[in-house]
Design goal:
Helix content: 25-40%
Shape: globular
Mean pLDDT: 97
Number of helices: 14
Number of strands: 16
Bound molecules: pyridoxal-5'-phosphate
Structural class: alpha/beta
Length: 454
């Protein structure tokens, strides 16, 4: 319906507009290029599809101000790290106070027991450990799972992302027609010399028979899953799928690791809890400390006993699990403040209501333009995808992607003061995202579609 040449023309025009409006970002990009690879502290920061990176002057609440002074309604929210708003005042105050009394000590801060109780109460698992990122938490969980079960293999869902955890980067790729697929180490990985398919099995989301086959030989330590996929566009579980995954894992003696790093958008206890799914291991990162580098993982008492037994049976020396900075006192304080003061039921009420309004608004805009793109939502998190029916798995979600169209829309929105997540079409509402921000997004989105559809 939208021709490639129209998309290209819009993109070229918007790139020019961006250049005219961002002279200081361009100057910073030139200066950054002197000493940073790709001109930025983390090379992904140059992947947003803007002609030069958007350098940030300030991020506060639901807004981000760039170095050129343009204020953006931020629906990316650091790809979930700022899901409760940028720099919530209560968090900034606690962090400022705590920073004066010690940062890292490699000893437990005295508020550790209170935090443990809080995590147990909120997420329903009795035992916890801290890490610095969700990537690390997932990595550590996989290692614990293998150690505790004595099994070598894991199962992932095609199209998953759980951070830069090497083990999970296995995809299903076409194998000579008729829908046949084979597992392959993700081709984009740099410097990976190990064939990851040796110990990682991959199946499609919402495909229970495939999962049961993958678990059948009793060699799988752990299934790692987001309860709804959020990194290949959005893929929601079909009715009963998660319950069936739980049952299949239990039947096979396999642990179920639920990664709620993004799906904590569903509600105060996350998606799995809201749908009555019990995890053996649960990972939360990014927003759990309001965007500060901290993550947590929880597990059952029974698994905790098996983890201890594995550790006690190992020779003295390093477990391969942990980092010097994990569990630092600032992280403890930040997670506690987030849970007690920021990620409150009241905050969720607002976030969910705002996202509902955004969801309805997106559907209305698409209907007005007679576009049969779908809209999906996980609580505070919305996504539009370039397909008529919501994808059932990673393969369908990937097929619905259109990088050029997406980049043109994102740049158009950004030039009108609205930021959405790069790499797919995710929009997140924080506790201070309001009707004005939602209306700005909808208006810009509609104007963009008008131009694209001629
Ligand atoms: C579901 C999920 N888990 C884990 C991670 C890793 O988080 P981090 O990059 O903060 O380590 C991500 C990052 O996007 C994610 O989407």
């Amino acid at each position: 319906m939208i021709s490639p040449s129209t998309i290209r023309a819009l993109h070229v025009r918007e790139a020019q507009r961006f250049g005219e409006r961002h002279p200081r970002c361009a100057a910073l990009a030139r200066a950054g290029a002197q000493h940073f690879l790709y001109g930025v502290p983390l090379h992904w920061m140059s992947d947003w599809g803007t002609p030069t990176p958007v350098f940030v002057h300030e991020a506060q609440g639901a807004h981000l101000t760039c170095a050129d002074g343009h204020v953006h309604a931020d629906f990316c929210l650091a790809d979930t790290a700022a899901m409760f708003g940028h720099s919530p005042p209560a968090l900034a105050q606690v962090v400022g106070e705590r920073a004066r009394h010690g940062l890292g000590t490699m000893l437990p801060g005295e508020e550790a027991p209170a935090l443990g109780a809080l995590l147990a109460q909120r997420f329903g698992l009795p035992l916890w450990q801290l890490a610095l990122s969700a990537t690390d938490a997932n990595r550590f969980c996989l290692r614990w799972a293998r150690a505790a079960t004595g099994r070598p293999n894991i199962v992932v869902f095609d199209g998953c992302y759980h951070g830069t955890v090497d083990d999970v980067f296995v995809d299903l790729v076409d194998a000579g027609g008729a829908g046949a697929t084979v597992p392959r180490t993700r081709a984009s990985l740099l410097g990976q010399v190990v064939d990851l398919t040796a110990h990682t099995r991959v199946v499609e989301f919402n495909d229970l028979p495939a999962l049961q086959r993958a678990l059948a030989d009793g060699s799988v330590a752990c299934v790692i899953a987001e309860p709804a996929m959020t990194n290949v566009g959005m893929v929601l579980p079909q009715d009963g799928f998660l319950q069936a995954v739980r049952a299949a894992c239990t039947a096979a003696g396999t642990l179920l690791l639920i990664d709620e790093t993004h799906t904590i958008s569903a509600g105060p206890g996350g998606y799995a809890q809201a749908h009555g799914i019990d995890a053996d291991l649960l990972v939360l990162g990014k927003a759990i400390a309001g965007g500060l580098p901290c993550a947590v993982y929880g597990f059952t008492a029974e698994l905790g006993a098996r983890m201890r037994a594995a550790k006690d049976a190992a020779p003295p020396g390093h477990s391969g699990i942990g980092t010097t900075l994990a569990g630092n006192m600032l992280g403890l304080a930040a997670v506690r403040a987030t849970l007690e003061q920021i990620a409150t039921p009241l905050a969720y009420d607002h976030m969910l209501a705002t996202a509902e309004r955004l969801d309805a608004g997106l559907r209305a805009v698409l209907a007005r333009h007679r576009l049969d793109w779908c809209v999906s939502r996980i609580g505070a998190r919305c996504e539009f995808q370039f397909c008529a029916t919501p994808p059932r798995n990673g393969r369908e979600a990937r097929a619905a992607m259109d990088d050029d169209l997406e980049a043109a829309i994102h740049l158009y929105l950004l030039n009108r003061g609205v930021l959405i997540t790069p790499f797919h079409n995710m929009m997140l509402c924080c506790p201070v995202t309001g009707g004005a921000e939602v209306d700005a997004l909808l208006q810009a989105f509609s104007a963009c579609l008008t131009e694209l559809l001629g």
